[in-house]
Amino acid sequence: MKTLHSLSSFVSVFENASKGKEAFRTFDDFLTLCMYHVTKDPHTDGMYYENDFARISEAYKQSGTYDDLIRLPSIFFRLVLDRILLPDMIGEFYMTAITPETNKTILSPFPLCLEMTQLFSNDADGALCILDTSVGTGRMLLAFEQNSREGYSYYGIDTTPLLVKLAAVNMFMHNLNGEVVCAQDSGLENFSIGYRINHHPDHDDPKGIFKFEDKEESEILFLRDFLKEQPKKRLFFY
User: What is the pTM of this model?
Assistant: First the structure.
């Protein structure tokens, strides 16, 4: 009952926040606010996505839906931290409420992802990183992490910018470190944007989700070349 109430609360607030706007746009703005709340700028006392937050806030204040929008991240954070729902609840919401009927995103049920990644995890001994070349919402990476006690780094590639942002938020909220990029393949053809996710900060790497727009900054390119001759040091999902 608690689960249904919490999920319905998120849906209700989202519907209010998206009045007068495309649901796709409001969902993108919601993800940006999630990143804003968890990422401090390492060079200032402010937040890394402060300019994005100001731009989005102004737009929703003008439409009268600002109060609803800013409630969404806290509802989502509570759902994740209290473990009220299965992982990737927000991916499930994206699949059912955001993608158009004519081009629906279909995600494998999370229990099936757990079964599939259990098989993969048996072959991952000695691997340094896990790379999903069609990462989607990050669901397979979340499932793999649940099946593994190793301290892997997780990487993902997808061709849809919104899914890449969603995967980055999912990874951070479920304590995965790594990177996701919007590109065509592991060679990063047609690269447009990437996010580096760090949940366990040290003196060199601050905690948060950090955007980069130069593909040469991607760790995936480095790993692809470095591990080319060491196939046992990586694991790919296709």
Answer: 0.90
154 & 226 share domain: yes
CA atoms within 13 A on the CB side of 170: 29
How far apart, in whole angstroms, are the C-alpha atoms of residue 122 and residue 117? 9
pLDDT of residue 121: 73
CA nearest to 137, candidates 191, 186, 185, 173: 173
Range of the domain at 30: 2-85
Same domain, 70 and 165: no
Overall number of domains in the chain: 2
Tens of pLDDT along 35-68? 999 999 988 889 999 999 999 999 999 999 999 9
Torsion angle of the four alpha carbons 215, 216, 218, 224, in this order, in degrees rounded to the nearest 10: 110
Are 204 and 99 in contact by the 8 Å Cβ rule? The answer is no
Instruction: Please name the residues in contact with 165: beta carbons below 8 A apart, sequence gap of 6 or more.
Output: 28, 31, 32, 35, 195
- % of the chain residues with pLDDT over 90: 56
Asked if residue 90 belongs to a domain, the reply is no
- CATH code, domain with 160: 3.40.50
Distance CA 32, CA 159 (A): 18
Does any domain span residue 136? yes
In a domain, 59, yes or no: yes
Per-residue pLDDT band for 238 (boundaries 50, 70, 90) equals: very low
Q: Which residue has the tokens 């470095």?
A: 226
